[in-house]
Amino acid sequence: METIYSRFEIKKSKIKVANDTKVYSLNCVGKLDTELNMKTITKSCAGVVKKKRNRGAGDGTATLSLHIPYELYRKIYGMDVEGLIDGVSAYGSASVHKEFSFTGVVLDEDGVELLIALPICMASSGPKQSIENGAEEVVEVEIEMDLMPDEFDFCEYEIPSAELPESITEEKWLTEFTPSMLQAPKA
User: Fold this and answer.
1) Does residue 158 lie in a domain region?
2) Is residue 93 a part of any domain in this protein?
3) What's the pLDDT tens digit per position in 3-59?
């Protein structure tokens, strides 16, 4: 019988900002949408396309909807600018969006786990907030992201938990992920 995997729920997820030692646990992710880009290469003869190949471009976009730790929100959007009194955050021309990685455990409807990683992400739009007086539900923060290629030209990795090699535990994937840990030894 063929196995069919349907992404259904994000069980665990973490973000690590580049050049930072802290790994943030995201306990309240509502939704993750990703779209990976491709490019088409064509071969024409006398103005007629004779051959076409589609291949991954190594980049993409994503939108993450969640309730986020404030410290992490400030870092992602570069709101932790210097020169202000303690505790004050600001967003403006001095705010440089930080690169970060996103890792997670995704379940299908039967509880089968798939580990995912987006190694290089960066917020692709400024901070967006929605405040509604009298609302009955707290609105999640939505972060639009660019997914950029890593040193191996990949922007997303995934593996079923059952297929993880012994050298990589789920916790290591979530907290210490690097693209180099997935490279096969060279002969």
Assistant:
1) yes
2) yes
3) 667 888 899 999 999 999 999 999 889 999 999 999 999 999 999 999 999 999 999
- Residue 4 located in a structural domain: no
Instruction: Give the structural domain span for 65.
Output: 9-182
- Whether residue 1 is contained in a domain is answered as no
Question: Can you give 72-99 as a three-state secondary structure string?
Answer: HHHHHCCCCCCCCCCCCCCCCCCCCCCC
In which residue are the tokens 């972060």 written? 143
CA separation for the pair 125, 44 (Å, rounded) = 38
- The count of structural domains within the chain is 1
The DSSP secondary structure of 110-156, one letter per residue, reads: T--EEEEEEEEEEE-S-------TT-SSPPPEEEEEEE---TTS-S-
Q: How do beta strands 100-107 and 9-17 pair? A: antiparallel
Burial of 66 (0-12, 13-18, 19+ CB in 10 A): buried
